[in-house]
Amino acid sequence: MERQRCYIDELNKQYYELKKAKDQCQSTRNELWRKENTIQQTLSSLKEDLAKADQSLRSMAGKRGGAAADIANSYYGPVIENFDCEKSIYTAVEVTAGNRLFHHIVDSDKVGTQILKEMNRQKLPGEVTFMPLNRLHVKEQNYPNTNDAIPMVTKLNYELKYDKALRYIFGKTLICRNLEVATHLAKTSGLDCVTLEGDQGSLTGGYFNTSRSRLEIQKTRSELNAQIRESEEELAKLRENLRETESKINHIVSEMQKTETKNSKA
What we know:
It is a single chain. The chain is mainly alpha-helical. It is 57% helix and 10% strand. It is built from six helices and eight strands. Strands 1-3-4 form a three-stranded mixed beta sheet, with helices on one face. It has a three-stranded mixed beta sheet with strand order 5-7-8, with helices on both faces. Helix 1 runs antiparallel to helix 6. It is elongated and about 110 Å long. The termini are close together. About 7% of the residues have low confidence. It holds the Pfam family SMC_hinge.
């Protein structure tokens, strides 16, 4: 009897432990459900924001051929998607590049031709300008040695394979401390000079609307894309945890039932 009594106590203890583990798992599961719900809401609002940013960019760039992207890996997307820079030079960069931000970088003129054929075949609206890397000739620039100006291209971050395209657009431009320096250097160096505010030395300055900065919108798009990717990964992990927790709970419940049966027998 003593032995049976000990055995019963032992089983009761086991049952209690199992019940505690089950409760814990259930509260973990509820927490995971709550998180899953939050992430799903965040995801859908991020996707909405991304769609809005895409819409804004498209309205600025005019119609850009949609099929272009499907042709091959030799299509690298518009210039604006292939570099980034500090916010402080956004205006200067946009004034320099203008609509060339939306020129499409491709590996070769052949790829460009193929894409155009495809666009014509699908009767897609809009104009597309390609920058075939095999056709771009960029000569080395001699920049003036001065503390009042810096070559714009040195302030951009991009992959080496896009070097030609970016030097083609930005290589001849200096960012200058102020308009006087810009005007002086534009005359003496023959380079295009621009201030951080977007005033140009040699060229006629025009009004530039900074409230709708294209680089700003592009940056927002990249950030949103990254956040969406992160949220999707987190969601996948959560679902995996949920599955594990569910099976743990099932296992514990069946252990509890076994323990109860043994207990009754004892």
